[in-house]
């Protein structure tokens, strides 16, 4: 037993002494959790989301109308650009042409800024906009609606989002205008209700959604890079050869190595969960028996994958290259960071063969952030277990424990 | 033949013989493009989405049917019970649901699909707005015409991502090219033999740089070609600026790579530092995630990253993002300047035998 514990201790100490290991196994997952929570957590909360837009209208053209639709629109946007009581930035910062400034020149200038990403959208109400709206309101149903021109950049997510919000604001103004002329009765409007399947009353917080994925990513990197890295470098540098002249057997070496790997994964788990909970307010519990069982299954699956790579590679560098090639497709084709629902059928085969998909789905389900899975529940255990079997079999048969003479 | 020509020929041979290096330089960026193209190509689009519909009343059936026309969704499937609808949403057999009970339009979403729900909610808001208008026999007085301000008609988020991937592969291969190769030469004691010849250290760096520059350039062309052919992406490429910028940015990245070569002894360490720096920059530079949504302090950090400027310039030369001429030339000149400064400055320190 003492030899196993000594090997486990040596494995942990070696990992701590290698700055690269520390970076990929500990710092990178923590960095990724921080950056993703800071970006997407804010997006889903709507906190401090702020867009710079330009509004071009010509209120002078509305002089003949009983009310000015373009002025009402300008007021609606001005309200959204006013300072907020909460201390957050207002939704919009609005630029408009100065009095006497050439309208076309201003539009050209703002379109250049839009293309350069300095503005999120430019809303243009044509010079005859007010008159056209009044004509439509007078003519009733069937008359063509007055068009507002919304310039945006289809390559910018910020511009897309700003454009959608602007469209919602215009739809609200539209309803109020129709109400003014008696063509829409707000009191008869059907309510729009949003609900969620399962027991949740709101959408999952981003940090709760991403935390299980980051945990698995950290375990995955430890298994995929750490296991072949340690074994192959130790083999190539003839460190393993020194072990084999002692009474230590391969089986006991593996037990010590596995125990050390588990300790490292436990450390990853503690740090990632602590950051998620205390820095970003994660509310999920990762200490339930099913959750812990899935996490242990994940550690063992990735450990087995590491052995498979170590058994296939001829050298440490080849092992790292193989791990690099497998890393990206396995991580991204599991739904860890991007949705996998729209993938073509040939890619879905990869998704369904990927053990990370099942481990991630069952982990998210066990902590209550996912209510259904792509495959029925026994598969969430069967597929990773099958991979453990395949990898262990290949590892036992092929892995060389000493350099070839 | 002078020293540089001999070294250049040798480096070409070494590069062509190294299958792993060939794979990672020429083909690995393709893995990124194919993977992210398939994952992100339709992200935010609702034309592949399906709506599950449960109607509990015959009231306003015509208005409801007209409201569901032209939603842009792939299909609308009817359900007889709420349980069946909820189960289908949970298992992602339908993307979101709608229930009409005569009093309200209730939309159901899967709480775990937070990256997609925003697009579904937009469709739902449109359906409710249209339904309300139809029920009261009226039509909108204001219509909104969206006009894409860019120069290319058929663009999407992936148009912006692909030049970012090109910039990322230029940076990561550039960072590793010099540092990885030099540390490998040191480890195999090849450098010891070379430095006792009259070879100038800069000639060796220039030979390594020239081969990797050519390989990197070919790699960007392959990646771009696959993006255009496989994903039907449209780019308006300014070839003169494209060639110029790829050369300047690759040289700049290699210049930064010589700094790594100063710090490390082993090729694996060089690879790890190059990978780690490139990865951190990738997440901060808006390659996959929009910089606009970052907190203000992260936007400042992002603006300090070389990859941010590299990605924006690549987007500019491929016609998906506008940039002032002055900014483009300053960016290109900065990368070239970095190379011209760092190569001669670090050459005598990095081209020396392994410390023992």
Give an overview of the whole structure.
The complex is a heterodimer of chains A (405) and B (356). Chain A is α/β, with parallel strands linked by helices. Chain A has helices at residues 2-17, 19-45, 69-81, 103-115, 129-139, 157-180, 206-236, 239-244, 250-280, 289-312, 316-332, 345-353, 355-366, 377-398; strands at residues 51-56, 92-95, 121-124, 146-152, 191-196. Chain A folds into two domains: 2-40 and 203-398, no CATH class; 48-188, 3-Layer(aba) Sandwich (D-Maltodextrin-Binding Protein, domain 2). Chain A contains 14 helices and five strands. A four-stranded mixed beta sheet of chain A has the order 2-1-3-4, sandwiched between helices. The model of chain A has no long low-confidence stretch (mean pLDDT 85). A four-stranded mixed beta sheet of chain B has the order 2-1-3-4, sandwiched between helices. The model of chain B has no long low-confidence stretch (mean pLDDT 84). The chains are: A alpha/beta (405), B alpha/beta (356). Chains A and B meet through helix 2, helix 4, helix 5, strand 4 and helix 6 of A and helix 2, helix 4, strand 4, helix 5 and strand 5 of B. Strand 4 (146-152) of chain A pairs parallel with strand 5 (142-148) of chain B.
Brief overview:
Chain A has 405 residues and is α/β, with parallel strands linked by helices.
Total count of domains of chain B = 2
* Sheet with most strands of chain A: 4 strands, mixed
**What value does the average pLDDT of chain B take?**
84
What structural class results from the helix and strand content of chain A? alpha/beta
Radius of gyration of chain B, whole Å: 27 Å
Stretches of chain A where pLDDT falls below 50 for ≥5 residues?
Answer: none
Shape of chain A: elongated
What portion of residues of chain B belong to β-strands? 5-15%
Distance between the termini of chain A: 32 Å
Task: Count up the domains of chain A.
Answer: 2
Number of strands of chain B: 5
* Contiguous uncertain segments of 5+ residues of chain B: none
Could you estimate the helical fraction of the residues of chain B in percent? 55-70%
Helix-residue proportion of chain A: 55-70%
Report the order of strands and helices of chain A. HHEHEHEHEHEHHHHHHHH
Output the structural class of chain B: alpha/beta
């Amino acid at each position: 037993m003492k030899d196993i514990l000594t090997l486990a201790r040596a494995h942990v100490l070696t990992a701590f002494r290698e700055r690269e290991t520390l970076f990929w196994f500990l710092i990178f997952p923590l960095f990724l959790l921080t950056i993703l929570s800071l970006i997407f957590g804010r997006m889903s909360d709507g906190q401090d989301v702020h867009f710079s837009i330009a509004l071009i209208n010509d209120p002078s053209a509305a002089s003949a109308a009983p009310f000015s639709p373009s002025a009402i629109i300008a007021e609606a946007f001005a309200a959204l650009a006013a300072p907020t009581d909460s201390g957050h930035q207002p939704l919009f910062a609005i630029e408009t042409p100065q009095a006497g400034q050439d309208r076309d020149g201003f539009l050209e200038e703002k379109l250049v800024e839009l293309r350069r990403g300095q503005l999120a959208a430019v809303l243009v109400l044509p010079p005859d906009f007010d008159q056209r709206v009044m004509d439509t309101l007078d003519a009733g149903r069937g008359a063509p609606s007055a068009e507002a021109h919304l310039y945006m950049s289809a390559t910018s997510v910020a511009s897309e989002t700003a454009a959608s919000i602007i469209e919602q604001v215009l739809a609200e103004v539209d309803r109020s205008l129709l109400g003014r002329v008696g063509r829409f009765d707000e009191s008869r409007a059907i309510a729009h209700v949003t609900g969620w399947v399962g027991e949740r009353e709101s959408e999952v917080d981003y940090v709760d959604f991403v935390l299980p994925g980051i945990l698995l990513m950290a375990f995955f990197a430890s298994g995929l890079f750490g296991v072949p890295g340690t074994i192959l470098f130790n083999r190539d540098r003839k460190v393993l050869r020194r072990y084999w002249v002692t009474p230590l057997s391969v089986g006991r070496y593996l037990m010590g190595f596995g125990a050390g790997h588990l300790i490292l994964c436990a450390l990853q788990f503690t740090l990632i969960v602590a950051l998620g909970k205390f820095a970003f307010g994660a509310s999920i519990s990762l200490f339930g028996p099913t959750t812990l069982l899935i996490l242990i299954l994940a550690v063992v699956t990735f450990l087995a994958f590491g052995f498979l790579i170590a058994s296939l590679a001829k050298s440490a560098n080849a092992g790292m290259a193989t791990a690099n090639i497998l890393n990206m497709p396995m991580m991204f084709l599991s739904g860890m960071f991007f949705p996998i629902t729209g993938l073509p059928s040939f890619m879905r085969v990869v998704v369904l063969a990927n053990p990370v998909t099942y481990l991630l789905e069952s982990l998210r389900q066990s902590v209550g952030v996912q209510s259904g899975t792509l495959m029925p529940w026994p598969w969430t255990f069967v597929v990773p277990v099958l991979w453990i079997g395949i990898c262990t079999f290949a590892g036992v048969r092929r892995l060389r424990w000493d350099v070839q003479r | 033949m002078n020293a540089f020509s001999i070294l250049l020929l040798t480096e070409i041979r070494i590069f062509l013989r190294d299958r792993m290096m060939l794979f990672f330089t020429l083909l690995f960026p393709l893995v990124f493009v194919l993977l992210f193209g398939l994952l992100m190509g339709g992200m935010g689009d609702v034309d592949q989405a399906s709506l599950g519909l449960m109607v509990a009343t015959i009231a306003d059936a015509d208005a409801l049917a007209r409201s569901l026309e032209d939603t842009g969704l792939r299909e609308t499937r009817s359900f007889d019970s709420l349980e069946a609808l909820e189960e289908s949403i949970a298992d992602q057999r339908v993307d979101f649901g709608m229930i009409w009970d005569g009093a309200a339009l209730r939309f159901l979403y899967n709480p775990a699909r937070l990256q997609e729900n925003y697009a579904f909610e937009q469709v739902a808001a449109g359906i409710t707005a249209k339904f309300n208008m139809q029920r009261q026999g009226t039509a909108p007085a204001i219509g909104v015409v969206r006009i894409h301000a860019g120069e290319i008609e058929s663009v999407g988020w992936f148009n912006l991502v692909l030049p970012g991937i090109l910039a990322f592969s230029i940076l990561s291969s550039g960072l590793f090219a010099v540092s990885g190769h030099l540390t490998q030469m040191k480890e195999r004691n090849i450098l010891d033999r070379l430095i006792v010849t009259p070879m100038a250290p800069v000639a060796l760096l220039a030979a390594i740089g020239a081969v990797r520059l050519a390989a990197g350039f070919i790699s960007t062309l392959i990646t771009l070609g696959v993006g255009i052919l496989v994903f039907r992406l449209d780019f308006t490429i300014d070839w003169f600026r494209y060639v110029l910028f790829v050369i300047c940015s690759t040289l700049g990245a290699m210049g930064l790579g010589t700094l790594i070569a100063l710090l490390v002894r082993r090729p694996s360490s060089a690879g790890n530092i190059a990978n780690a720096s490139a990865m951190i920059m990738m997440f901060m530079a808006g390659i996959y995630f929009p910089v606009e949504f970052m907190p203000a302090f992260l936007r400042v950090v992002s603006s300090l990253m070389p990859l941010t400027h590299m990605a924006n310039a690549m987007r500019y030369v491929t016609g998906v993002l506008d940039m002032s001429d002055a900014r483009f030339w300053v960016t290109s000149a900065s990368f070239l300047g970095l190379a011209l400064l760092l190569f001669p400055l670090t050459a005598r320190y990095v081209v020396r035998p392994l410390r023992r």
